[in-house]
Amino acid sequence: MQRRSPTRRAFLGSSALAGAAWSACQAPAPESTADTASTGTLGSPVSRYGQRSPFENATRGVRTTLTPEAASSRTPLDETYGIITPSALHFERHHAGVPEIDPANHELMIHGLVERPMAFSLEDIKRLPSVSRVHFVECSGNSGGEWSPAGAPNVSLSHGLASCSEWTGVPLRILLEEAGVRPEAGWILAEGADACLMQRSITLEKAMDDGLVAYGQNGEAIRPEQGYPLRLILPGWEGNTNVKWLRRIKVTEGPQYVKDETSKYTELMEDGTAWIFTFEMDAKSVITRPSGGHSIGSPGFVEISGLAWSGRGKIARVEVSTDGGSSWSDAELQAPVYSRAFTRFRLPWEWDGAETVLLSRCQDETGYVQPTRALLIEERGTKSAYHCNRIKGWRVAADGSVTSAEV
Amino acid sequence: MRKCRTVPILLLSLLTAQAIGAQTYGLGRPLTADEARRVDITIGPEGRELPEGSGTAADGAQVYEVRCKECHGDLGVGGDQAALIGVPEQLKEARPIKTVGSFWPYATTLFDYTRRAMPFEEPGTLSDDQVYAVTAYVLHLNGIVEEDFELNRETLPDVKMPNREGFVRDPRGQAGE
Fold it and tell me: What ipTM was assigned to the predicted interfaces of this complex?
């Protein structure tokens, strides 16, 4: 993983070449001279809330449906850099729309098997000891299209129901201890304040371990579509357990078997039984550049870059193949590598202009290795729908165009 | 000598604090029993939280006609939204059909979800009697209860769903108990 290819230094020295290779994907750059950009024209004044450049147009992928309030939008992972997803591009999955909540009227109630049923205002919660942590959130239905051999044509469609933010809030343990959890408790139920009062049962063990009641995302208040003013963050657990618009926690003995942990978000096996409470997201990686829909342009230097993450800890290793899996090279992992967070990997590559397939394969700190589609199907059959984390391939054609490869 | 006396006292006070679970920060306010009761709407599999009220499938047919049919179709199939009718054998088909009848392990879940989240555009607007009735109707369409079976807080938890034994805890073995 730390090994550097002998040619890497040479690549690093040729950044001009790197720029040229990528320019084919974009509009031709104007001849750059020192005085074209701003000379003679005064720029815009300071402003109270910044906007991105009018030349940037990355957006979430949205599909037309009968019920856009119970739908999802996808992060364009190939148009994000580093490991943080811009809040405005964080994927969405709502079950009954985005509520508008005035924080002055919002409380988090904690009741059930506790010594002291309590309600905390936002003011209370912000006075308590806080932490900031970088974590991904991934819908367990992410990559559902990858159960098919070819998979989705681009990385937004194939992996865009995952995003990564720095979350700030109060450890859930602190709030539960303030209410005093009774010894017979084993689970909690978390409920949101959206129209359907979305809810999930969560083990008390997880809640006390690293559950976070978050009010901050990437340095500002959580966006409405991410749960403003409060959401649960359960690092590494399937997206919808990270209940948004969190308003109530009931401490219970056992799970409640609510709709979204029985009829949905369970994995059907070939024999007709289903796995239930499949909380952790397995390790997964995907090359984001170049990826489906891109065009490399001319042969030469191309940096291969992508994201890897695991619901069980840190990413330990990412290998990349540029020859359809015949050989693999360790990609460089961007430091620091956080637990249960996006990890950026990069590998310098000299494309010779021949058709090939690019693959990535990750391993997390538990030793778990991202499986092939065949292995995943061997373990789970083809009906489980959720939790697809198979290796994804991108075919580079001789003309430089990139499409999804059957792997 | 002094130290020896302090340690047991400190230990004792820590243990006491843990047993009583004293607050550390003194923030937040007590939630009254009344407030807790009002929001305590999640119905667990034993049905302890079920409200007063009742309904039969015959009553529920009326509710379904007005509030549910547009999305879920005549008799619980053929609508734009989820089909409600089926049997567990359909879970083994090439394209499995996961419905209330074929898949859901607990009838309490159907009551809970209908009451909190349905109808989609007006969630939470059915009365408890209406929720009991339309729950009875959907169960009846699945052949699980008779048309005149009265669903209430006593009878609902005893309804045995066909796929009750169809779930196994995550065998990946890293979550939960």
Answer: 0.88
